[in-house]
């Protein structure tokens, strides 16, 4: 994901506060799933683990993580995207 959605687009297409779905694909190395979950928790300053699921590719090289945190506003969505973009091993983010 080269370009983040705008605040205007997020506010027009999502209701806040509410759940927002992030899909993150990365390498299976170095606890990628845990780092995705931790990045979201850190950005939200939350002790609670957000709802998430994961699926590893048939070859075992990549993992897809779907994470659905409760967010208060569009700005939090953008902050989470920025934090996720910094993860080592990231392949795709949407």
From TrEMBL:
Pfam families: DUF493. Gene3D superfamilies: 3.30.70.260. This is DUF493 domain-containing protein. It comes from Maioricimonas rarisocia.
């Amino acid at each position: 994901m080269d370009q983040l959605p705008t605040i205007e687009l997020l506010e027009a297409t999502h209701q806040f506060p509410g759940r927002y779905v992030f899909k993150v694909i990365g390498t299976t190395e170095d606890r990628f799933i845990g780092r995705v979950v931790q990045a979201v928790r850190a950005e939200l300053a939350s002790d609670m683990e957000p709802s998430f699921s994961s699926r590893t590719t048939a070859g075992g090289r990549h993992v897809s993580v779907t994470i659905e945190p409760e967010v208060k506003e569009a700005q939090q969505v953008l902050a989470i995207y920025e934090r996720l973009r910094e993860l080592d091993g990231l392949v795709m983010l949407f």
